[in-house]
Amino acid sequence: MSKKPPFEHHTIDAAAKQKAPADNNLRKQKRRMLLKGTAALPVIMTLHSGAALARTSNLAGPAAPGDDIAKQNLGDGRGDRVVCMHPNPAKAEQELGGNAPPYDLGPAPSGHLEHNSYVDANGDTQPFSDIEQAMNCQTNNGGIAVSATAFTSILSKSGATIDTTW
Amino acid sequence: MSTHSFWQSNNFQTLLIEDWGGEYTVFQPDSGKTHYLNQMSMHILSFLNQHSASVFDISSHLGEQFEQNSDKEFQQNIQKILYHLDALGLIKKVK
Protein backbone atom coordinates (compact mmCIF):
# COMPACT_ATOMS: atom_id res chain seq x y z
CA MET A 1 0.00 0.00 0.00
CA SER A 2 1.28 3.44 -0.86
CA LYS A 3 2.08 5.88 1.91
CA LYS A 4 0.12 8.51 0.05
CA PRO A 5 -3.37 8.60 1.51
CA PRO A 6 -6.00 7.77 -1.08
CA PHE A 7 -8.23 10.76 -0.59
CA GLU A 8 -10.10 12.74 -3.15
CA HIS A 9 -8.25 15.81 -4.25
CA HIS A 10 -10.12 19.07 -4.52
CA THR A 11 -8.76 22.02 -6.42
CA ILE A 12 -8.23 25.33 -4.71
CA ASP A 13 -6.86 28.60 -6.01
CA ALA A 14 -4.02 27.70 -8.32
CA ALA A 15 -2.18 30.90 -7.46
CA ALA A 16 -1.92 29.75 -3.88
CA LYS A 17 0.16 26.82 -5.04
CA GLN A 18 3.03 29.03 -6.06
CA LYS A 19 5.79 28.60 -3.53
CA ALA A 20 8.44 31.11 -2.63
CA PRO A 21 11.76 30.68 -4.42
CA ALA A 22 13.98 28.39 -2.41
CA ASP A 23 17.01 30.65 -2.50
CA ASN A 24 15.40 33.66 -0.85
CA ASN A 25 13.64 32.06 2.04
CA LEU A 26 15.93 30.08 4.22
CA ARG A 27 13.78 30.56 7.29
CA LYS A 28 10.83 28.94 5.59
CA GLN A 29 12.99 26.04 4.51
CA LYS A 30 14.24 25.50 8.04
CA ARG A 31 10.71 25.67 9.42
CA ARG A 32 9.59 23.16 6.82
CA MET A 33 12.43 20.83 7.76
CA LEU A 34 11.39 21.10 11.37
CA LEU A 35 7.79 20.25 10.52
CA LYS A 36 8.81 17.34 8.32
CA GLY A 37 11.09 16.16 11.09
CA THR A 38 8.01 15.51 13.18
CA ALA A 39 6.76 12.94 10.66
CA ALA A 40 7.21 10.19 13.25
CA LEU A 41 4.25 11.63 15.11
CA PRO A 42 0.92 12.87 13.83
CA VAL A 43 0.62 16.65 13.83
CA ILE A 44 -2.44 18.82 13.35
CA MET A 45 -2.59 22.57 13.77
CA THR A 46 -5.50 24.85 13.10
CA LEU A 47 -4.54 27.84 11.00
CA HIS A 48 -6.02 31.20 11.90
CA SER A 49 -7.53 33.73 9.58
CA GLY A 50 -5.14 36.38 8.37
CA ALA A 51 -7.93 38.96 8.54
CA ALA A 52 -8.54 38.22 12.18
CA LEU A 53 -4.85 38.46 12.95
CA ALA A 54 -4.62 41.76 11.12
CA ARG A 55 -7.50 43.14 13.11
CA THR A 56 -5.86 42.23 16.38
CA SER A 57 -2.63 43.94 15.39
CA ASN A 58 -1.86 47.62 15.46
CA LEU A 59 -2.29 47.76 11.73
CA ALA A 60 -5.32 48.72 9.73
CA GLY A 61 -7.24 46.05 7.88
CA PRO A 62 -10.05 46.21 5.37
CA ALA A 63 -13.48 45.14 6.56
CA ALA A 64 -16.38 44.06 4.44
CA PRO A 65 -20.09 44.23 5.32
CA GLY A 66 -20.86 41.13 7.34
CA ASP A 67 -17.52 40.93 9.11
CA ASP A 68 -17.68 39.98 12.73
CA ILE A 69 -16.74 43.33 14.19
CA ALA A 70 -19.34 43.29 16.94
CA LYS A 71 -17.63 40.48 18.77
CA GLN A 72 -14.33 42.26 18.40
CA ASN A 73 -15.64 45.33 20.18
CA LEU A 74 -17.71 43.53 22.75
CA GLY A 75 -14.49 42.52 24.40
CA ASP A 76 -14.64 38.78 24.15
CA GLY A 77 -10.89 38.66 24.49
CA ARG A 78 -10.07 38.16 20.85
CA GLY A 79 -8.19 41.38 20.42
CA ASP A 80 -8.10 45.11 20.36
CA ARG A 81 -11.21 47.22 19.87
CA VAL A 82 -11.68 48.73 16.43
CA VAL A 83 -13.08 51.86 14.87
CA CYS A 84 -14.53 52.12 11.37
CA MET A 85 -12.89 54.58 9.02
CA HIS A 86 -13.37 55.65 5.43
CA PRO A 87 -10.83 57.52 3.32
CA ASN A 88 -11.14 61.27 3.24
CA PRO A 89 -13.21 61.89 0.09
CA ALA A 90 -11.37 65.12 -0.76
CA LYS A 91 -8.03 63.39 -0.54
CA ALA A 92 -9.31 60.48 -2.55
CA GLU A 93 -10.46 62.92 -5.19
CA GLN A 94 -7.00 64.42 -5.30
CA GLU A 95 -4.91 61.25 -5.09
CA LEU A 96 -7.08 58.58 -6.60
CA GLY A 97 -9.02 60.47 -9.22
CA GLY A 98 -12.37 60.49 -7.55
CA ASN A 99 -13.58 57.18 -6.24
CA ALA A 100 -12.50 56.48 -2.70
CA PRO A 101 -12.13 52.74 -2.25
CA PRO A 102 -13.02 51.84 1.33
CA TYR A 103 -9.75 50.04 1.87
CA ASP A 104 -6.94 52.58 1.47
CA LEU A 105 -6.25 55.66 3.55
CA GLY A 106 -3.60 56.79 1.06
CA PRO A 107 0.15 57.36 1.45
CA ALA A 108 -0.43 60.09 4.04
CA PRO A 109 -3.21 58.63 6.15
CA SER A 110 -6.29 60.74 6.08
CA GLY A 111 -9.68 59.47 6.94
CA HIS A 112 -13.07 59.96 8.42
CA LEU A 113 -14.57 58.16 11.32
CA GLU A 114 -17.59 56.69 9.63
CA HIS A 115 -20.85 57.83 11.26
CA ASN A 116 -19.34 59.07 14.48
CA SER A 117 -22.51 60.80 15.65
CA TYR A 118 -26.19 61.20 14.91
CA VAL A 119 -28.89 63.82 15.41
CA ASP A 120 -31.56 62.79 17.89
CA ALA A 121 -35.27 63.66 17.90
CA ASN A 122 -34.53 66.94 19.67
CA GLY A 123 -32.09 68.00 16.99
CA ASP A 124 -29.11 67.47 19.26
CA THR A 125 -25.97 65.76 18.01
CA GLN A 126 -25.27 62.62 19.96
CA PRO A 127 -22.18 60.44 19.72
CA PHE A 128 -22.56 56.84 18.72
CA SER A 129 -21.16 54.32 21.14
CA ASP A 130 -17.89 52.65 20.16
CA ILE A 131 -19.67 49.49 19.16
CA GLU A 132 -22.26 51.35 17.08
CA GLN A 133 -19.54 53.30 15.33
CA ALA A 134 -17.46 50.22 14.56
CA MET A 135 -20.52 48.33 13.38
CA ASN A 136 -20.75 50.73 10.44
CA CYS A 137 -17.97 48.75 8.80
CA GLN A 138 -20.17 45.69 9.15
CA THR A 139 -23.62 46.98 8.40
CA ASN A 140 -23.07 49.73 5.82
CA ASN A 141 -20.59 49.81 2.99
CA GLY A 142 -17.56 48.28 4.57
CA GLY A 143 -14.66 50.46 5.55
CA ILE A 144 -11.31 50.15 7.19
CA ALA A 145 -11.34 48.51 10.58
CA VAL A 146 -8.56 50.21 12.48
CA SER A 147 -7.53 49.03 15.89
CA ALA A 148 -8.24 51.60 18.56
CA THR A 149 -4.56 51.50 19.46
CA ALA A 150 -3.59 52.27 15.88
CA PHE A 151 -6.21 54.99 15.71
CA THR A 152 -4.80 56.69 18.80
CA SER A 153 -1.33 56.33 17.36
CA ILE A 154 -2.39 57.90 14.08
CA LEU A 155 -3.93 60.84 15.88
CA SER A 156 -1.03 61.57 18.17
CA LYS A 157 2.04 60.70 16.14
CA SER A 158 1.52 60.59 12.43
CA GLY A 159 0.01 63.97 11.86
CA ALA A 160 -2.79 62.31 9.94
CA THR A 161 -5.92 64.32 9.54
CA ILE A 162 -8.90 62.61 11.07
CA ASP A 163 -12.26 64.24 10.62
CA THR A 164 -14.44 62.89 13.40
CA THR A 165 -17.51 64.86 12.31
CA TRP A 166 -18.37 62.77 9.24
CA MET B 1 -6.64 4.24 28.26
CA SER B 2 -9.47 2.59 26.40
CA THR B 3 -8.52 0.84 23.21
CA HIS B 4 -12.06 -0.41 22.59
CA SER B 5 -13.53 2.76 21.13
CA PHE B 6 -13.87 2.72 17.39
CA TRP B 7 -13.45 5.80 15.31
CA GLN B 8 -14.39 6.89 11.83
CA SER B 9 -14.05 10.05 9.80
CA ASN B 10 -16.76 12.69 9.96
CA ASN B 11 -17.93 14.34 6.72
CA PHE B 12 -14.62 13.54 5.07
CA GLN B 13 -16.17 14.04 1.65
CA THR B 14 -16.81 17.72 2.36
CA LEU B 15 -13.20 18.52 3.22
CA LEU B 16 -11.12 20.53 0.79
CA ILE B 17 -7.69 18.98 0.92
CA GLU B 18 -4.54 20.32 -0.65
CA ASP B 19 -1.31 18.35 -0.80
CA TRP B 20 1.82 20.45 -0.37
CA GLY B 21 4.31 17.66 -0.91
CA GLY B 22 3.59 15.46 2.06
CA GLU B 23 2.00 18.20 4.13
CA TYR B 24 -1.64 19.05 3.88
CA THR B 25 -3.99 21.94 4.39
CA VAL B 26 -7.54 20.88 5.06
CA PHE B 27 -10.42 23.31 4.87
CA GLN B 28 -13.37 22.12 6.90
CA PRO B 29 -16.58 23.79 5.61
CA ASP B 30 -18.55 22.71 8.70
CA SER B 31 -16.43 24.84 10.99
CA GLY B 32 -14.97 27.27 8.47
CA LYS B 33 -11.52 26.41 9.79
CA THR B 34 -8.37 25.43 7.97
CA HIS B 35 -6.03 22.88 9.50
CA TYR B 36 -2.45 21.90 8.81
CA LEU B 37 -1.83 18.15 8.92
CA ASN B 38 1.40 16.29 8.43
CA GLN B 39 1.46 13.04 6.49
CA MET B 40 0.75 10.81 9.46
CA SER B 41 -2.29 12.81 10.56
CA MET B 42 -3.57 12.84 7.01
CA HIS B 43 -3.05 9.11 6.88
CA ILE B 44 -5.14 8.67 10.02
CA LEU B 45 -7.93 10.74 8.54
CA SER B 46 -7.80 8.87 5.26
CA PHE B 47 -7.66 5.48 7.01
CA LEU B 48 -10.69 6.35 9.13
CA ASN B 49 -12.54 7.35 6.00
CA GLN B 50 -12.21 3.78 4.78
CA HIS B 51 -12.51 1.85 8.03
CA SER B 52 -13.89 2.17 11.50
CA ALA B 53 -10.91 1.43 13.68
CA SER B 54 -9.70 1.37 17.25
CA VAL B 55 -6.59 3.16 18.43
CA PHE B 56 -4.86 -0.22 18.40
CA ASP B 57 -5.83 -0.83 14.76
CA ILE B 58 -4.73 2.65 13.78
CA SER B 59 -1.44 2.41 15.62
CA SER B 60 -0.66 -0.96 14.06
CA HIS B 61 -1.50 0.32 10.60
CA LEU B 62 0.60 3.45 11.04
CA GLY B 63 3.44 1.38 12.48
CA GLU B 64 3.49 -0.69 9.29
CA GLN B 65 3.08 2.24 6.93
CA PHE B 66 5.68 4.43 8.56
CA GLU B 67 7.99 1.60 9.64
CA GLN B 68 7.70 2.48 13.25
CA ASN B 69 7.44 0.51 16.45
CA SER B 70 3.81 0.63 17.56
CA ASP B 71 4.59 0.59 21.26
CA LYS B 72 2.49 1.89 24.14
CA GLU B 73 3.92 5.40 23.94
CA PHE B 74 3.12 5.56 20.24
CA GLN B 75 -0.44 4.38 20.93
CA GLN B 76 -0.83 7.07 23.56
CA ASN B 77 0.26 9.69 21.06
CA ILE B 78 -2.23 8.34 18.54
CA GLN B 79 -4.93 8.41 21.21
CA LYS B 80 -4.19 12.08 21.87
CA ILE B 81 -4.40 12.99 18.22
CA LEU B 82 -7.68 11.08 17.92
CA TYR B 83 -9.15 13.16 20.74
CA HIS B 84 -7.88 16.28 19.01
CA LEU B 85 -9.39 15.24 15.67
CA ASP B 86 -12.63 14.41 17.47
CA ALA B 87 -12.70 17.82 19.17
CA LEU B 88 -12.30 19.46 15.77
CA GLY B 89 -15.15 17.39 14.34
CA LEU B 90 -12.95 15.64 11.80
CA ILE B 91 -13.62 12.18 13.23
CA LYS B 92 -16.19 10.66 15.57
CA LYS B 93 -16.58 7.69 17.84
CA VAL B 94 -18.78 4.91 16.54
CA LYS B 95 -18.70 2.49 19.48
Short description, anyone?
The complex is a heterodimer of chains A (166) and B (95). Chain A is of the alpha+beta class. In chain A, 32% of the residues lie in helices and 19% in strands.
Written overview of the protein:
The complex is a heterodimer of chains A (166) and B (95). Chain A has 166 residues and is α+β, with helices and mostly antiparallel strands. Chain A contains 6 helices and 8 strands, in the order αβαβαβαβββαβαβ. Chain A has helices spanning 26-37, 50-56, 69-73, 89-96, 130-139, 148-158; strands at 44-47, 60-63, 82-87, 110-113, 117-119, 125-127, 143-147, 161-163. Chain A starts with 25 loop residues before the first helix and ends with a strand. The model of chain A is unreliable at 1-20, 55-60 and 74-79 (pLDDT under 50). In chain B, the strands form 2 sheets. In chain B, strands 5-1-6 form a 3-stranded antiparallel beta sheet. Chain B has helices spanning 39-50, 55-65, 72-87; strands at 6-9, 16-19, 23-28, 33-38, 53-54, 91-93. Chain B is α+β, with helices and mostly antiparallel strands and 95 residues long. In chain B, 41% of the residues lie in helices and 26% in strands. Chain A binds chain B through residues 1, 3, 5-10, 12, 16-17, 32, 35-36, 38-47, and chain B through 12-13, 15-19, 22-23, 25, 27, 33-47, 49-50, 62, 65-66, 68, 77-78, 81, 84-85, 88.
